[in-house]
Write a structure and sequence with these properties.
Blueprint (H helix, E strand, L loop, with lengths): L2 E6 L4 H15 L3 E8 L5 H13 L2 E7 L8 H14 L3 E4 L7 H16 L9 E5 L5 E2 L2 E2 L4 E4 L4 H8 L7 H19 L4 E6 L17
Parallel strand pairs: 1-2, 1-4, 2-3, 4-5
Antiparallel strand pairs: 5-9, 6-7, 8-9
Length: 215
């Protein structure tokens, strides 16, 4: 059994960018934990995060950062490092460092700092991955995956999880992500795929986690 952790900015980001992968891994017998930086406990978005995670078979935690007003500081890094030390993930998914959304860039920086600060993580961490972004468009170019995960079998589960975030007009995201995952799937020679980029950590890129597959 492996453990996959997403550290993403907003409560619906995990479903949008990695929901099919999370559902696939859970079906294979692995554990999944979604960490959302934004989403105060007891808020509508935190409740939706729990509902979306339940559809995927994942657990969820929210860290009370404020949407569009997030701050990268020592407290955030310490909190994430403690989470990593306790959960000991084999795979971590965060945002792309070239993402055009400032909250996403902050989540990437905080995650990378926490990976370094976490105690004993290097022994079990196989992959640190960056997920896709809106229209695959970054500040200095296009997001180009080097790992594709076939999510055809969990596609409807992914959509159902996204739709749990009713406060965010989920259909607009579904239209966008369907096009992107179809294109990633065409490149991977499957119907739908989620695309990721490996982030170097501990001087290595890592391979494909057992059962994560990918091309």
């Amino acid at each position: 059994m492996a453990r996959i952790l997403t550290v993403l900015a907003h409560p619906d980001d995990a479903e949008i960018w990695a929901g099919g992968t999370l559902a696939r891994q859970v079906r294979e017998g692995d554990e999944a934990l979604i960490c959302s930086l934004a989403g105060d406990e007891g808020s509508t978005r935190a409740a939706e995060a729990g509902e979306g995670a339940a559809v995927l078979g994942a657990q969820v935690t929210v860290l009370n950062q404020t949407d569009r007003h997030m701050r990268l500081n020592e407290d955030l890094v310490r909190t994430l490092a403690a989470l990593l030390t306790d959960y000991r993930p084999n795979v971590i998914v965060t945002h792309w460092e070239q993402d055009s959304h400032p909250d996403h860039v902050l989540a990437n920086a905080a995650t990378r700092a926490a990976v370094v600060a976490a105690s004993g993580l290097s022994k079990g961490l196989d992959l640190l991955l960056a997920c896709d972004t809106y229209l695959s468009s970054g500040r200095d170019g296009m997001f180009t995956p080097d790992l594709y995960v076939d999510v055809t079998a969990t596609w409807e589960t992914k959509l159902a999880a996204i739709r749990k975030h009713g406060s965010q007009d989920p259909e607009q995201y579904i239209q966008t992500i369907e096009r992107q995952c179809w294109l990633h799937g065409a490149r991977a020679k499957v119907r739908y795929a989620e695309g990721f980029r490996r982030i170097p950590v501990y001087g290595r890129l890592g391979g494909a986690l057992r059962r994560l597959g990918g091309t």
